[in-house]
Structure formats: C-alpha cells, structure tokens
Amino acid sequence: MKHFSTRALETKSAALEIKEEGGPDDVPAAIAALQATFEEKMAGLQNEVKAAKDRADELETKLNRPGTGSTKTDDDQERKAFESFLRRGIERMPADEVKTLTVANDPSAGYLAPETIGAELFKDMVEFSPIRNYARVVQITGPEIRYPRRVSGTTAYWVDEIEDRTASEPVFDQMSLTPWELATFTEVSNQLLEDNAYNLEEELRLDYAESFGKKEGAAFVAGTGTKQPRGILTATGIPEIITGKADGFAATDPADAIVKAYYALPSAYAQRGAWLMNRNTMGIMSQWKDGQGRYLLMNPVTEGTPSTLLGRPVIEAVDMPDVAAGAFPIVFGDWSGYRIVDRIGLSVLRDPYTRARNGITTFHARKRVGGDVTHPDRFVKVKVAAS
C-alpha cells in the first residue's frame, strides 16, 4: 500500500507542475510518460523476481544432490558413529558420536545398527530370505504378540414366519507369535580394526546379511516353532493336494496337481497368491507345455521380476525340498496369511576383552524375529505321492 501511495503522490505532483507550466493540453502526454516509466520499472522488478527464483531453484538443486542434503549428513554421522563404535568402542568415542548410536534395551544389550545400515542389511537378507517380500511383516515392542483367530462363523437357518430362531455365535481362539533370538559372533584382529582403509562396516553387514538371512529363511520354510519361527511346511491346518505318481508328477498331464492346487483356494486368495518352490522344482516345471505348446512356467522378461506359473509369481526358496516321495516341494497361497514379527533389529555388542591376549576383538550380533501361519485357509500344499 505504501508503494502505490507514493506513486499516486508523484503522479499528482507531476500533474500540478504540468498544469502550472504547460496547461491542460500537456496532461495526456505527461500521463503517458508516467505510465511508460511505471511499466519499465515493473518490468525491471519482474526480472529481479525471476532472477531470485532462478537462484533459489539452483540452490535447491544443489542441496538435493547426493552428499549435500541434511538427510545425507545425518546418515553419514550415523555411519561414522557406528564405525567408530566398531573400531574403538563406546568408551573411546566422542560424546557427539555416542548420542547418534541407538541403544537396544540397555548398554549391555549392545547398540542397534543405524537405520541406513539396517535398511541395507534387510535388503541383502531378502536374497536369502525371499518370503519376507511376500509375507506380512510387523514390528512389535513386547516379548510376544497375540492375535485373535476365527475358527468358525455364524450359521443362518431357514425359518417360518413366527418360528423360533436359532442362535449361533462365531468361535474364536487366540494365537501367540514369539520373537526368537538369532545370534552369531565375529572375531576381528585389532590390527584390522586400526586400519582405516579396511571397510569394516560393509564387511560385517554383508556377513551378517548372509548368516542371518539363511537361518531365518530356512525357519520360515521348515522351522519347528521351538526356539525358532514356525515354518509354512510345519504349520497345521493347511490342506494338501497329492500328485498322481509316486516320486514325482504324472507322466501324462503332470501339471494337473498344480492346476488343482490353484483352484483349491478361493478366488480372493488365489488372485493374490504366489508359488513357493526351489530351483530344482522350477527346472522340472520349465519343461511343461500346454496343448498349444506354450510353456506353463514363464521366465521373466525384465530384470528383477519373478517367474510366473498360471499367471502368479514364483518365489524361489533354496530351503524348499526337492521333488521326492512324500515331500512337499510346492506351496501356493496368499502370503499375507504368514506373519513375521520383528522385535529387535541388528544389535552389535563389542567385546575387546575375552580375546585380548590374542589381539582379537569379538563382535556379538543378534536380532529377535518370529513367524507363523495366521491363516491356514489361505494356503495349499502340493505333496508328492509316497507310493
């Protein structure tokens, strides 16, 4: 408002000067001149605004580049603090680095890996534990979690106009999922810890991803449920489809058992389903063709996508058994019916004392994870005939 008031005063002053000096005939020309001056200044102002906006956009682009944003800086600080902890221990770390470490339960339980390292660890673990990509994964904060599970629903009855109605109630039970501890340790010489060129954090991350991923992947398939997750093959209540030939699939129409398994599930589950088998079983199925000579098992056309069978993805799991008499080489189902509970992510405890006489520091790594089938009706297992 102050800007326009000033312009108004300038215009009025100029008009008075014109009226005093040149008379009324010169007023239109003076107004036109003032308008031209005003437009010229507005154009200049717009150019300045545009230049300021361009500078702001350029600055934003620079900040968004890798290594310049605040998030990246935070990630670097976390990585630096975690690596400092691995190399020197908590007692020799600066106070600002100690603050960036995340404590698990208490100092004696170790320190959690930073979120960025934990995310990379999880990504690598999926290579050995592919069920994580399809199952329902939840994070819990207690020693166990309980879920109500419906055993049966209500029943409706046909009745006459004034006939007494029959009551019915749904039946529920309760299941508990317990996170079990998975642990290992790694011994590293103190000389390696002192060598800054040695990428200790990366090496440990890859090692832990492999060892933890293999163990939990095997448990999600065939775990007993005692001190480890319960696997899909050992869970109860899952229906079975038996192949027509002992030790394998029928010589004629071998895919019949697979088609039966697909249609054994309700449409809602089958349309979200995925097959679970190992690579040897996939090799057998890769030879099957339909009546038009088309292969039933379709290999992916783009990198990173799974193979498909009857239009549904195939989860390749090395822990699934081979085709053999009495074995369950194939499972099909909606994997939201299998639940994985994570209690504690990767936690590392540094022990420089136990092997100090040998110049070795030991790193104890642990995590707590559980798993079980919550909805058996969403799965079907294919069993090879025993005889």
UniProtKB/TrEMBL annotation:
It is found in: Virion. Pfam families: Phage_capsid. Residues 56-77 are annotated as: Disordered. Residues 110-383 form the Phage capsid-like C-terminal domain. SUPFAM superfamilies: Major capsid protein gp5. InterPro entries: Phage_capsid, Phage_capsid-like_C. Transmembrane segments: none annotated. NCBIfam families: major_cap_HK97. This is HK97 family phage major capsid protein. The lineage of its organism: Bacteria, Pseudomonadati, Pseudomonadota, Alphaproteobacteria, Hyphomicrobiales.
